[in-house]
Design a protein that fits this description.
The protein has about 550 residues and is of the alpha+beta class. It is built from 20 helices and 18 strands. The longest helix has 20 residues. The structure holds flavin-adenine dinucleotide. This is FAD-binding oxidoreductase.
Length: about 550
Protein backbone atom coordinates (compact mmCIF):
# COMPACT_ATOMS: atom_id res chain seq x y z
CA UNK A 1 0.00 0.00 0.00
CA UNK A 2 1.04 3.57 -0.62
CA UNK A 3 2.71 4.58 2.62
CA UNK A 4 2.94 8.27 1.74
CA UNK A 5 -0.83 8.75 2.09
CA UNK A 6 -1.97 9.00 5.70
CA UNK A 7 -5.52 7.95 6.55
CA UNK A 8 -7.74 8.54 9.56
CA UNK A 9 -8.57 5.73 12.00
CA UNK A 10 -10.72 3.16 10.22
CA UNK A 11 -13.26 3.25 13.07
CA UNK A 12 -13.32 6.95 14.00
CA UNK A 13 -12.21 10.52 13.51
CA UNK A 14 -8.66 11.72 13.15
CA UNK A 15 -5.24 10.44 14.07
CA UNK A 16 -4.42 7.28 16.00
CA UNK A 17 -3.68 7.97 19.62
CA UNK A 18 -5.59 11.27 19.73
CA UNK A 19 -8.95 11.42 21.51
CA UNK A 20 -11.23 13.51 23.70
CA UNK A 21 -10.67 13.67 27.47
CA UNK A 22 -12.88 15.38 30.01
CA UNK A 23 -10.73 15.03 33.11
CA UNK A 24 -9.50 18.63 32.70
CA UNK A 25 -13.06 19.91 32.15
CA UNK A 26 -14.72 19.61 35.54
CA UNK A 27 -18.14 20.77 34.34
CA UNK A 28 -18.41 18.23 31.52
CA UNK A 29 -19.47 15.06 33.40
CA UNK A 30 -22.16 16.80 35.49
CA UNK A 31 -23.47 18.51 32.34
CA UNK A 32 -23.75 15.22 30.43
CA UNK A 33 -25.38 13.53 33.43
CA UNK A 34 -27.98 16.27 33.73
CA UNK A 35 -28.76 16.77 30.03
CA UNK A 36 -28.73 13.24 28.61
CA UNK A 37 -28.73 11.08 31.74
CA UNK A 38 -25.30 9.56 31.06
CA UNK A 39 -23.11 9.01 34.12
CA UNK A 40 -19.56 9.13 32.81
CA UNK A 41 -18.20 7.82 36.12
CA UNK A 42 -20.14 4.55 35.97
CA UNK A 43 -20.77 4.03 32.23
CA UNK A 44 -18.60 1.32 30.73
CA UNK A 45 -16.36 2.61 27.96
CA UNK A 46 -16.33 0.44 24.83
CA UNK A 47 -12.93 -1.01 24.00
CA UNK A 48 -11.29 0.07 20.75
CA UNK A 49 -12.78 -2.07 17.98
CA UNK A 50 -10.58 -4.80 16.62
CA UNK A 51 -10.14 -5.01 12.88
CA UNK A 52 -10.01 -8.81 13.16
CA UNK A 53 -13.66 -8.81 14.25
CA UNK A 54 -14.83 -7.36 10.92
CA UNK A 55 -16.32 -9.45 8.14
CA UNK A 56 -14.96 -7.62 5.14
CA UNK A 57 -16.65 -8.55 1.85
CA UNK A 58 -14.03 -10.15 -0.37
CA UNK A 59 -12.71 -8.13 -3.32
CA UNK A 60 -14.31 -9.20 -6.57
CA UNK A 61 -11.87 -7.23 -8.75
CA UNK A 62 -10.63 -9.46 -11.59
CA UNK A 63 -6.89 -10.07 -11.34
CA UNK A 64 -6.29 -8.83 -14.89
CA UNK A 65 -7.99 -5.53 -14.05
CA UNK A 66 -5.91 -5.06 -10.89
CA UNK A 67 -2.78 -5.80 -12.93
CA UNK A 68 -3.84 -3.26 -15.53
CA UNK A 69 -4.25 -0.64 -12.76
CA UNK A 70 -0.84 -1.58 -11.35
CA UNK A 71 0.57 -1.11 -14.84
CA UNK A 72 -0.67 2.50 -14.73
CA UNK A 73 0.18 3.59 -11.17
CA UNK A 74 2.82 1.04 -10.13
CA UNK A 75 2.45 -2.02 -7.86
CA UNK A 76 2.91 0.03 -4.69
CA UNK A 77 -0.05 2.27 -5.46
CA UNK A 78 -2.85 -0.20 -5.99
CA UNK A 79 -4.32 -2.31 -3.20
CA UNK A 80 -6.93 -4.99 -2.59
CA UNK A 81 -5.95 -5.25 1.08
CA UNK A 82 -8.94 -5.53 3.47
CA UNK A 83 -7.86 -2.70 5.78
CA UNK A 84 -7.24 -0.34 2.86
CA UNK A 85 -10.63 -1.18 1.35
CA UNK A 86 -12.42 -0.70 4.68
CA UNK A 87 -10.78 2.71 5.13
CA UNK A 88 -12.30 3.67 1.77
CA UNK A 89 -15.79 2.29 2.45
CA UNK A 90 -17.45 5.06 4.43
CA UNK A 91 -17.08 8.70 5.39
CA UNK A 92 -17.30 9.86 9.01
CA UNK A 93 -20.99 10.42 9.66
CA UNK A 94 -22.40 9.04 12.88
CA UNK A 95 -24.24 6.45 10.77
CA UNK A 96 -20.88 5.47 9.20
CA UNK A 97 -19.18 5.15 12.58
CA UNK A 98 -22.00 3.08 14.09
CA UNK A 99 -21.96 0.76 11.08
CA UNK A 100 -18.23 0.30 10.90
CA UNK A 101 -17.87 -0.29 14.65
CA UNK A 102 -20.83 -2.69 14.46
CA UNK A 103 -19.36 -4.83 11.66
CA UNK A 104 -22.00 -3.65 9.18
CA UNK A 105 -20.11 -3.49 5.89
CA UNK A 106 -22.33 -4.73 3.10
CA UNK A 107 -20.12 -3.57 0.22
CA UNK A 108 -16.56 -2.28 0.11
CA UNK A 109 -14.56 -0.99 -2.82
CA UNK A 110 -12.89 -3.93 -4.54
CA UNK A 111 -9.68 -2.11 -5.26
CA UNK A 112 -8.06 1.16 -4.15
CA UNK A 113 -5.80 3.06 -6.52
CA UNK A 114 -3.52 6.02 -5.80
CA UNK A 115 -2.54 7.84 -9.02
CA UNK A 116 0.41 10.24 -9.00
CA UNK A 117 -0.87 12.82 -11.47
CA UNK A 118 -3.64 13.79 -13.84
CA UNK A 119 -2.30 11.61 -16.67
CA UNK A 120 -2.53 8.55 -14.42
CA UNK A 121 -6.03 9.53 -13.29
CA UNK A 122 -7.06 9.71 -16.95
CA UNK A 123 -5.65 6.24 -17.64
CA UNK A 124 -7.32 4.77 -14.52
CA UNK A 125 -10.67 6.33 -15.46
CA UNK A 126 -10.44 5.08 -19.05
CA UNK A 127 -9.45 1.58 -17.94
CA UNK A 128 -12.28 1.48 -15.38
CA UNK A 129 -14.90 2.68 -17.85
CA UNK A 130 -13.67 0.17 -20.45
CA UNK A 131 -13.99 -2.58 -17.84
CA UNK A 132 -17.49 -1.36 -16.90
CA UNK A 133 -16.32 -0.64 -13.35
CA UNK A 134 -17.56 2.01 -10.90
CA UNK A 135 -15.20 4.83 -9.84
CA UNK A 136 -15.60 6.54 -6.46
CA UNK A 137 -13.21 9.48 -6.03
CA UNK A 138 -11.80 9.65 -2.47
CA UNK A 139 -10.38 12.83 -0.90
CA UNK A 140 -9.90 12.78 2.87
CA UNK A 141 -12.89 10.52 3.58
CA UNK A 142 -14.35 13.11 5.99
CA UNK A 143 -17.82 13.59 4.48
CA UNK A 144 -20.82 13.11 6.71
CA UNK A 145 -23.57 12.74 4.13
CA UNK A 146 -22.98 9.16 2.96
CA UNK A 147 -21.22 10.34 -0.20
CA UNK A 148 -18.60 7.61 -0.47
CA UNK A 149 -20.13 4.22 0.17
CA UNK A 150 -20.53 1.76 -2.72
CA UNK A 151 -24.12 0.60 -3.14
CA UNK A 152 -24.70 -2.82 -1.52
CA UNK A 153 -26.36 -4.17 -4.68
CA UNK A 154 -23.47 -3.08 -6.96
CA UNK A 155 -22.29 -6.11 -8.94
CA UNK A 156 -19.62 -4.31 -10.97
CA UNK A 157 -16.06 -3.85 -9.75
CA UNK A 158 -15.83 -0.78 -7.51
CA UNK A 159 -12.65 1.29 -7.68
CA UNK A 160 -11.88 3.81 -4.96
CA UNK A 161 -9.70 6.44 -6.63
CA UNK A 162 -7.72 8.08 -3.83
CA UNK A 163 -6.22 11.49 -4.73
CA UNK A 164 -3.91 11.42 -1.69
CA UNK A 165 -0.65 11.45 -3.66
CA UNK A 166 -1.68 14.59 -5.55
CA UNK A 167 -1.29 17.33 -2.97
CA UNK A 168 0.98 20.02 -4.36
CA UNK A 169 0.40 23.72 -4.78
CA UNK A 170 1.43 23.76 -8.45
CA UNK A 171 1.69 27.46 -9.08
CA UNK A 172 0.62 30.84 -7.71
CA UNK A 173 -0.36 33.68 -10.03
CA UNK A 174 0.71 36.41 -7.65
CA UNK A 175 -0.63 39.17 -9.91
CA UNK A 176 -4.16 37.75 -9.70
CA UNK A 177 -4.17 36.01 -6.31
CA UNK A 178 -4.89 32.60 -7.85
CA UNK A 179 -3.27 29.31 -6.81
CA UNK A 180 -3.40 26.03 -8.75
CA UNK A 181 -3.72 23.20 -6.25
CA UNK A 182 -3.82 19.45 -6.85
CA UNK A 183 -7.15 18.04 -5.73
CA UNK A 184 -5.79 15.65 -3.09
CA UNK A 185 -4.12 18.40 -1.02
CA UNK A 186 -5.49 18.35 2.52
CA UNK A 187 -5.98 21.58 4.46
CA UNK A 188 -2.65 21.57 6.35
CA UNK A 189 -0.72 20.52 3.18
CA UNK A 190 -1.97 23.35 1.06
CA UNK A 191 -2.03 26.02 3.75
CA UNK A 192 1.60 25.30 4.71
CA UNK A 193 2.67 25.55 1.05
CA UNK A 194 0.70 28.79 0.57
CA UNK A 195 1.87 30.30 3.87
CA UNK A 196 5.50 29.70 2.94
CA UNK A 197 5.17 32.43 0.33
CA UNK A 198 2.83 34.65 2.34
CA UNK A 199 -0.55 33.47 1.02
CA UNK A 200 -3.64 31.84 2.57
CA UNK A 201 -6.73 30.18 1.08
CA UNK A 202 -8.91 31.41 3.98
CA UNK A 203 -10.96 28.17 3.94
CA UNK A 204 -11.01 26.49 7.34
CA UNK A 205 -13.81 23.94 7.79
CA UNK A 206 -13.82 22.11 11.16
CA UNK A 207 -12.60 19.07 9.19
CA UNK A 208 -9.68 21.10 7.74
CA UNK A 209 -7.01 18.72 9.08
CA UNK A 210 -8.39 15.69 7.19
CA UNK A 211 -10.25 16.95 4.10
CA UNK A 212 -9.06 17.90 0.62
CA UNK A 213 -9.58 20.74 -1.81
CA UNK A 214 -11.18 18.29 -4.30
CA UNK A 215 -13.55 17.05 -1.58
CA UNK A 216 -14.43 20.63 -0.60
CA UNK A 217 -15.42 21.40 -4.20
CA UNK A 218 -17.28 18.10 -4.64
CA UNK A 219 -19.38 18.75 -1.50
CA UNK A 220 -19.70 22.57 -1.63
CA UNK A 221 -17.88 23.06 1.64
CA UNK A 222 -17.80 26.16 3.87
CA UNK A 223 -15.07 27.23 6.27
CA UNK A 224 -15.38 29.21 9.45
CA UNK A 225 -14.04 32.47 7.97
CA UNK A 226 -16.51 32.39 5.07
CA UNK A 227 -17.86 35.85 5.91
CA UNK A 228 -14.61 37.27 4.56
CA UNK A 229 -13.30 34.64 2.12
CA UNK A 230 -16.57 33.11 0.86
CA UNK A 231 -17.65 29.47 0.61
CA UNK A 232 -15.59 27.10 -1.56
CA UNK A 233 -18.14 27.87 -4.30
CA UNK A 234 -16.74 31.43 -4.29
CA UNK A 235 -13.12 30.46 -3.69
CA UNK A 236 -12.81 27.78 -6.42
CA UNK A 237 -12.46 29.65 -9.71
CA UNK A 238 -10.87 27.16 -12.12
CA UNK A 239 -11.25 23.38 -12.34
CA UNK A 240 -9.76 20.40 -14.12
CA UNK A 241 -11.98 17.30 -14.11
CA UNK A 242 -10.99 13.99 -15.66
CA UNK A 243 -13.85 12.45 -17.61
CA UNK A 244 -13.84 9.39 -19.87
CA UNK A 245 -11.47 10.13 -22.73
CA UNK A 246 -10.58 13.74 -21.86
CA UNK A 247 -10.26 16.49 -19.28
CA UNK A 248 -12.97 19.09 -18.68
CA UNK A 249 -11.10 22.38 -18.26
CA UNK A 250 -12.58 25.50 -16.70
CA UNK A 251 -10.16 28.41 -16.70
CA UNK A 252 -10.03 30.60 -13.57
CA UNK A 253 -12.14 33.58 -14.56
CA UNK A 254 -13.31 36.28 -12.18
CA UNK A 255 -16.77 35.97 -13.76
CA UNK A 256 -18.28 34.88 -17.05
CA UNK A 257 -21.64 34.83 -18.82
CA UNK A 258 -20.92 31.78 -20.95
CA UNK A 259 -24.27 30.07 -20.38
CA UNK A 260 -25.35 27.99 -17.37
CA UNK A 261 -22.31 27.53 -15.18
CA UNK A 262 -20.49 24.22 -15.70
CA UNK A 263 -18.34 25.25 -12.72
CA UNK A 264 -21.50 25.26 -10.59
CA UNK A 265 -22.42 21.83 -11.96
CA UNK A 266 -19.12 20.39 -10.76
CA UNK A 267 -19.49 22.11 -7.37
CA UNK A 268 -21.44 19.68 -5.17
CA UNK A 269 -21.35 16.89 -7.79
CA UNK A 270 -19.90 14.41 -5.21
CA UNK A 271 -17.87 12.54 -7.80
CA UNK A 272 -20.76 11.99 -10.20
CA UNK A 273 -19.39 14.04 -13.10
CA UNK A 274 -15.77 12.94 -13.05
CA UNK A 275 -12.59 13.17 -10.99
CA UNK A 276 -11.45 16.67 -10.02
CA UNK A 277 -7.67 16.70 -10.39
CA UNK A 278 -6.88 20.38 -9.91
CA UNK A 279 -8.61 23.42 -8.44
CA UNK A 280 -7.51 27.00 -9.00
CA UNK A 281 -8.50 28.93 -5.91
CA UNK A 282 -8.51 32.56 -4.91
CA UNK A 283 -5.78 33.21 -2.37
CA UNK A 284 -5.13 36.20 -0.12
CA UNK A 285 -2.09 37.67 1.55
CA UNK A 286 -1.78 36.30 5.11
CA UNK A 287 -3.40 39.09 7.12
CA UNK A 288 -1.25 41.25 9.34
CA UNK A 289 -3.86 40.97 12.09
CA UNK A 290 -6.28 38.16 12.83
CA UNK A 291 -8.25 38.06 16.04
CA UNK A 292 -11.53 36.74 17.40
CA UNK A 293 -13.40 38.58 20.13
CA UNK A 294 -16.13 37.19 22.39
CA UNK A 295 -19.40 38.95 23.16
CA UNK A 296 -22.52 38.09 25.14
CA UNK A 297 -26.12 38.89 24.27
CA UNK A 298 -29.01 38.79 26.75
CA UNK A 299 -31.10 36.56 24.46
CA UNK A 300 -30.91 34.48 21.27
CA UNK A 301 -33.24 36.94 19.51
CA UNK A 302 -30.91 39.83 20.36
CA UNK A 303 -27.92 37.84 19.10
CA UNK A 304 -29.54 36.98 15.76
CA UNK A 305 -30.77 40.51 15.20
CA UNK A 306 -27.28 41.81 15.89
CA UNK A 307 -25.72 39.36 13.39
CA UNK A 308 -28.19 40.54 10.76
CA UNK A 309 -27.44 44.16 11.55
CA UNK A 310 -23.71 43.43 11.17
CA UNK A 311 -24.28 41.76 7.79
CA UNK A 312 -26.24 44.82 6.62
CA UNK A 313 -23.71 47.31 7.92
CA UNK A 314 -20.40 48.61 6.57
CA UNK A 315 -18.56 46.24 8.88
CA UNK A 316 -16.99 43.20 7.24
CA UNK A 317 -15.84 40.77 9.92
CA UNK A 318 -14.37 37.39 8.92
CA UNK A 319 -16.49 35.39 11.39
CA UNK A 320 -19.97 36.01 12.75
CA UNK A 321 -21.16 33.38 15.17
CA UNK A 322 -23.64 33.33 18.02
CA UNK A 323 -24.62 30.33 20.12
CA UNK A 324 -28.10 29.88 21.54
CA UNK A 325 -28.56 29.57 25.30
CA UNK A 326 -28.17 25.76 25.23
CA UNK A 327 -24.90 25.88 23.32
CA UNK A 328 -23.65 28.72 25.51
CA UNK A 329 -24.35 26.55 28.57
CA UNK A 330 -22.48 23.66 26.96
CA UNK A 331 -19.46 25.84 26.13
CA UNK A 332 -19.27 27.07 29.72
CA UNK A 333 -19.63 23.55 31.10
CA UNK A 334 -16.96 22.09 28.85
CA UNK A 335 -14.38 24.79 29.45
CA UNK A 336 -11.13 23.78 30.98
CA UNK A 337 -10.41 24.78 34.57
CA UNK A 338 -8.10 27.51 33.38
CA UNK A 339 -9.84 28.81 30.31
CA UNK A 340 -10.84 32.06 28.75
CA UNK A 341 -14.09 31.74 30.67
CA UNK A 342 -12.56 31.57 34.13
CA UNK A 343 -13.63 35.20 34.52
CA UNK A 344 -17.19 34.02 34.03
CA UNK A 345 -17.39 30.70 35.81
CA UNK A 346 -15.69 31.82 39.01
CA UNK A 347 -18.45 34.02 40.42
CA UNK A 348 -16.55 37.15 39.53
CA UNK A 349 -17.51 40.49 38.08
CA UNK A 350 -19.01 39.33 34.78
CA UNK A 351 -22.10 37.44 35.98
CA UNK A 352 -22.74 40.20 38.49
CA UNK A 353 -22.65 42.81 35.74
CA UNK A 354 -25.07 40.76 33.66
CA UNK A 355 -27.45 40.29 36.56
CA UNK A 356 -27.27 44.00 37.29
CA UNK A 357 -28.33 44.64 33.70
CA UNK A 358 -31.39 42.47 34.34
CA UNK A 359 -30.13 39.54 32.21
CA UNK A 360 -31.35 36.04 32.91
CA UNK A 361 -28.14 33.98 33.04
CA UNK A 362 -30.00 30.94 31.65
CA UNK A 363 -30.76 32.86 28.48
CA UNK A 364 -27.46 34.52 27.69
CA UNK A 365 -25.86 33.80 24.31
CA UNK A 366 -22.15 33.70 23.56
CA UNK A 367 -20.92 35.16 20.29
CA UNK A 368 -17.56 35.12 18.50
CA UNK A 369 -16.71 37.75 15.91
CA UNK A 370 -13.50 37.63 13.90
CA UNK A 371 -11.52 40.44 12.32
CA UNK A 372 -8.79 40.14 9.71
CA UNK A 373 -6.67 42.45 7.61
CA UNK A 374 -4.28 45.27 8.34
CA UNK A 375 -4.12 46.28 11.99
CA UNK A 376 -5.99 49.50 11.20
CA UNK A 377 -8.67 47.63 9.23
CA UNK A 378 -9.23 45.03 11.97
CA UNK A 379 -9.43 47.78 14.57
CA UNK A 380 -11.91 49.76 12.52
CA UNK A 381 -14.11 46.70 11.88
CA UNK A 382 -14.18 45.95 15.58
CA UNK A 383 -15.21 49.50 16.32
CA UNK A 384 -18.14 49.24 13.89
CA UNK A 385 -19.20 45.86 15.30
CA UNK A 386 -18.84 46.97 18.93
CA UNK A 387 -21.32 49.77 18.26
CA UNK A 388 -23.84 47.36 16.71
CA UNK A 389 -23.44 44.88 19.57
CA UNK A 390 -24.05 47.66 22.06
CA UNK A 391 -27.11 48.86 20.18
CA UNK A 392 -28.55 45.33 20.44
CA UNK A 393 -27.94 45.10 24.15
CA UNK A 394 -24.81 42.96 23.98
CA UNK A 395 -21.43 43.35 25.68
CA UNK A 396 -17.87 42.48 24.70
CA UNK A 397 -15.76 40.27 26.99
CA UNK A 398 -12.41 40.44 25.26
CA UNK A 399 -10.16 38.20 23.22
CA UNK A 400 -9.37 35.35 25.69
CA UNK A 401 -12.33 33.05 24.92
CA UNK A 402 -11.95 33.75 21.19
CA UNK A 403 -8.29 32.69 21.29
CA UNK A 404 -9.26 29.47 23.00
CA UNK A 405 -12.03 28.76 20.51
CA UNK A 406 -9.59 29.33 17.66
CA UNK A 407 -6.96 27.01 19.13
CA UNK A 408 -9.35 24.17 19.96
CA UNK A 409 -11.68 24.18 16.96
CA UNK A 410 -10.07 21.20 15.22
CA UNK A 411 -10.16 19.08 18.43
CA UNK A 412 -13.95 19.12 18.83
CA UNK A 413 -14.63 16.29 16.32
CA UNK A 414 -12.98 13.79 18.69
CA UNK A 415 -15.83 14.33 21.17
CA UNK A 416 -18.23 12.37 18.95
CA UNK A 417 -16.10 9.22 19.17
CA UNK A 418 -15.84 9.57 22.93
CA UNK A 419 -19.64 9.75 23.27
CA UNK A 420 -20.01 6.72 20.98
CA UNK A 421 -17.54 4.84 23.20
CA UNK A 422 -19.84 5.65 26.12
CA UNK A 423 -22.98 4.49 24.28
CA UNK A 424 -24.34 7.88 23.22
CA UNK A 425 -25.02 9.59 19.91
CA UNK A 426 -23.66 13.06 19.28
CA UNK A 427 -24.12 14.46 15.80
CA UNK A 428 -24.98 17.54 13.76
CA UNK A 429 -27.45 18.82 11.17
CA UNK A 430 -26.98 22.19 9.56
CA UNK A 431 -29.03 24.39 7.28
CA UNK A 432 -29.42 27.90 5.90
CA UNK A 433 -32.49 30.12 5.69
CA UNK A 434 -33.41 33.76 5.11
CA UNK A 435 -33.09 36.08 8.12
CA UNK A 436 -36.89 36.29 8.35
CA UNK A 437 -37.14 32.51 8.92
CA UNK A 438 -34.23 31.77 11.24
CA UNK A 439 -36.05 31.99 14.57
CA UNK A 440 -38.91 29.91 13.20
CA UNK A 441 -36.51 27.24 11.89
CA UNK A 442 -34.67 27.17 15.21
CA UNK A 443 -37.85 26.68 17.24
CA UNK A 444 -39.28 24.11 14.80
CA UNK A 445 -36.07 22.02 14.96
CA UNK A 446 -36.10 22.09 18.77
CA UNK A 447 -39.75 20.96 18.79
CA UNK A 448 -39.07 18.22 16.23
CA UNK A 449 -36.06 16.91 18.16
CA UNK A 450 -37.98 16.89 21.45
CA UNK A 451 -40.81 14.96 19.79
CA UNK A 452 -38.32 12.45 18.38
CA UNK A 453 -36.68 12.01 21.80
CA UNK A 454 -40.13 11.38 23.33
CA UNK A 455 -40.82 8.74 20.66
CA UNK A 456 -37.60 6.93 21.50
CA UNK A 457 -38.19 7.45 25.22
CA UNK A 458 -34.94 9.26 26.01
CA UNK A 459 -33.80 12.52 27.51
CA UNK A 460 -32.10 14.13 24.55
CA UNK A 461 -30.13 17.32 24.09
CA UNK A 462 -30.06 19.84 21.29
CA UNK A 463 -28.14 23.08 20.87
CA UNK A 464 -27.46 25.47 18.03
CA UNK A 465 -25.44 28.35 16.70
CA UNK A 466 -25.71 30.78 13.85
CA UNK A 467 -22.61 31.11 11.66
CA UNK A 468 -21.76 32.13 8.09
CA UNK A 469 -23.81 35.29 7.57
CA UNK A 470 -24.94 36.41 4.11
CA UNK A 471 -26.84 39.43 2.90
CA UNK A 472 -30.18 37.57 2.98
CA UNK A 473 -29.72 34.98 5.72
CA UNK A 474 -27.36 32.67 7.57
CA UNK A 475 -26.50 29.10 8.47
CA UNK A 476 -27.99 27.46 11.58
CA UNK A 477 -25.95 24.56 12.93
CA UNK A 478 -27.57 22.08 15.34
CA UNK A 479 -25.81 19.53 17.53
CA UNK A 480 -27.87 16.78 19.15
CA UNK A 481 -27.07 14.02 21.63
CA UNK A 482 -28.84 11.19 23.40
CA UNK A 483 -28.07 7.82 24.95
CA UNK A 484 -28.72 4.89 22.62
CA UNK A 485 -31.40 2.43 23.75
CA UNK A 486 -31.83 -0.83 21.78
CA UNK A 487 -31.37 0.09 18.14
CA UNK A 488 -28.80 2.86 17.58
CA UNK A 489 -29.26 3.34 13.83
CA UNK A 490 -33.03 3.50 13.85
CA UNK A 491 -33.02 5.80 16.92
CA UNK A 492 -30.47 8.03 15.21
CA UNK A 493 -32.64 8.09 12.07
CA UNK A 494 -35.69 9.09 14.12
CA UNK A 495 -33.92 12.20 15.43
CA UNK A 496 -31.99 13.09 12.29
CA UNK A 497 -35.05 12.66 10.05
CA UNK A 498 -37.19 14.81 12.33
CA UNK A 499 -34.62 17.62 12.15
CA UNK A 500 -34.20 17.38 8.37
CA UNK A 501 -37.97 17.41 7.88
CA UNK A 502 -38.26 20.49 10.09
CA UNK A 503 -35.73 22.23 7.82
CA UNK A 504 -37.72 21.74 4.61
CA UNK A 505 -41.06 22.37 6.34
CA UNK A 506 -39.80 25.78 7.40
CA UNK A 507 -38.22 27.07 4.18
CA UNK A 508 -34.69 26.09 5.10
CA UNK A 509 -32.33 23.99 2.97
CA UNK A 510 -31.41 20.35 3.67
CA UNK A 511 -27.76 21.28 4.13
CA UNK A 512 -25.74 24.48 4.06
CA UNK A 513 -22.32 22.83 3.65
CA UNK A 514 -22.35 19.04 4.14
CA UNK A 515 -23.78 18.13 0.74
CA UNK A 516 -26.46 15.59 -0.14
CA UNK A 517 -24.88 12.14 -0.50
CA UNK A 518 -27.28 9.41 0.56
CA UNK A 519 -28.21 10.92 3.93
CA UNK A 520 -29.96 14.05 2.68
CA UNK A 521 -31.18 12.74 -0.68
CA UNK A 522 -34.67 11.80 0.62
CA UNK A 523 -35.43 15.53 1.06
CA UNK A 524 -33.89 16.79 -2.18
CA UNK A 525 -37.21 17.05 -3.99
CA UNK A 526 -38.69 19.15 -1.17
CA UNK A 527 -35.57 21.31 -1.33
CA UNK A 528 -35.24 21.97 -5.06
CA UNK A 529 -38.65 20.75 -6.40
CA UNK A 530 -39.36 17.68 -8.51
CA UNK A 531 -38.47 19.59 -11.69
CA UNK A 532 -35.14 20.50 -10.11
CA UNK A 533 -34.46 16.82 -9.39
CA UNK A 534 -35.40 15.95 -12.98
CA UNK A 535 -32.84 18.43 -14.30
CA UNK A 536 -30.13 16.98 -12.03
CA UNK A 537 -31.02 13.41 -12.97
CA UNK A 538 -30.88 14.32 -16.65
CA UNK A 539 -27.47 15.92 -16.12
CA UNK A 540 -25.99 12.86 -14.41
CA UNK A 541 -27.56 10.41 -16.87
CA UNK A 542 -26.39 12.26 -19.98
CA UNK A 543 -22.91 13.08 -18.64
CA UNK A 544 -22.40 9.53 -17.37
CA UNK A 545 -24.72 7.18 -19.31
CA UNK A 546 -22.99 4.06 -17.99
CA UNK A 547 -23.34 5.23 -14.34
CA UNK A 548 -19.61 4.74 -13.78
CA UNK A 549 -19.08 7.72 -11.45
CA UNK A 550 -20.24 7.29 -7.85
CA UNK A 551 -23.81 6.27 -8.75
CA UNK A 552 -26.77 6.80 -6.41
CA UNK A 553 -25.33 9.85 -4.65
CA UNK A 554 -27.18 13.18 -4.56
CA UNK A 555 -30.03 11.63 -6.58
CA UNK A 556 -30.89 7.94 -6.62
CA UNK A 557 -30.34 6.18 -9.95
C1 LIG B 1 -16.06 16.32 12.33
C2 LIG B 1 -16.42 16.89 11.01
C3 LIG B 1 -16.44 18.26 10.84
C4 LIG B 1 -16.79 18.80 9.60
N1 LIG B 1 -16.81 20.16 9.44
C5 LIG B 1 -17.11 20.69 8.23
C6 LIG B 1 -17.12 22.10 8.04
O1 LIG B 1 -16.83 22.89 8.95
N2 LIG B 1 -17.42 22.56 6.80
C7 LIG B 1 -17.71 21.72 5.77
O2 LIG B 1 -17.97 22.19 4.68
N3 LIG B 1 -17.74 20.40 5.94
C8 LIG B 1 -17.44 19.85 7.12
N4 LIG B 1 -17.45 18.49 7.29
C9 LIG B 1 -17.80 17.62 6.17
C10 LIG B 1 -16.61 17.20 5.28
O3 LIG B 1 -15.39 17.47 5.89
C11 LIG B 1 -16.73 17.91 3.95
O4 LIG B 1 -17.84 17.37 3.25
C12 LIG B 1 -15.47 17.84 3.07
O5 LIG B 1 -15.63 18.79 2.06
C13 LIG B 1 -15.20 16.50 2.45
O6 LIG B 1 -13.91 16.52 1.87
P1 LIG B 1 -13.04 15.18 1.73
O7 LIG B 1 -11.79 15.54 1.05
O8 LIG B 1 -12.93 14.51 3.03
O9 LIG B 1 -13.98 14.36 0.73
P2 LIG B 1 -14.44 12.83 0.82
O10 LIG B 1 -15.18 12.61 2.08
O11 LIG B 1 -13.32 11.94 0.53
O12 LIG B 1 -15.47 12.80 -0.40
C14 LIG B 1 -16.67 13.51 -0.35
C15 LIG B 1 -17.38 13.42 -1.69
O13 LIG B 1 -16.64 14.14 -2.66
C16 LIG B 1 -16.20 13.28 -3.70
N5 LIG B 1 -14.83 13.65 -4.03
C17 LIG B 1 -13.78 13.76 -3.20
N6 LIG B 1 -12.69 14.14 -3.88
C18 LIG B 1 -13.06 14.28 -5.17
C19 LIG B 1 -12.38 14.61 -6.37
N7 LIG B 1 -11.09 14.91 -6.37
N8 LIG B 1 -13.08 14.62 -7.52
C20 LIG B 1 -14.40 14.33 -7.54
N9 LIG B 1 -15.09 14.00 -6.43
C21 LIG B 1 -14.42 13.97 -5.28
C22 LIG B 1 -16.31 11.87 -3.14
O14 LIG B 1 -16.52 10.92 -4.16
C23 LIG B 1 -17.51 12.01 -2.23
O15 LIG B 1 -18.68 11.92 -2.98
C24 LIG B 1 -17.12 17.93 8.53
C25 LIG B 1 -17.06 16.55 8.71
C26 LIG B 1 -16.73 16.03 9.94
C27 LIG B 1 -16.69 14.54 10.12
Amino acid sequence: MTDTVKHMKWWGWGNDGVGFHHEDKPGFAPFVAEKVGLDLHTAERAVEPSFDDLDVPASTAPEAFVSALAGIVGDDHVSVDDLVRVIHTYGKSLRDLVRIRGNQILRSPDVVVYPADEAEVQQVVDAAVAADAVIIPFGGGSNIAGSLEPMPAETRTVVSLDLGRMRAVVDIDTDSGLARIQAGAQGPDLEAQLNSTGWTIGHFPDSFTHSTVGGWVATRSTGMQSDKYGDIADIARGLRVVRPGDVLVLRPLPSTSSGPSVREMILGSEGRLGVITEVTVQVHRVPEKRNIFAYFFPTWEAGITAMQAISESDASPSITRVSDAHETGFTMATSKTRSGFSKFTAETALPRIMKAKGWDLDKICLSFIGYEGSTAHAKHQKKLVDAIVKKHGGMGVGEGPGLLYDQKKFDTPYLRDFLLDMGAAGDVSETAAPWSKLLQVHDAVYAAADKAYAEIGVTGWIMSHLSHSYHSGACLYFTFAFVFQDDPLSEYDTVKNAIQQAFVDNDATISHHHGVGREHAPWLEEDISSEGVKVLTALFESADPGAHFNPDKVVAD
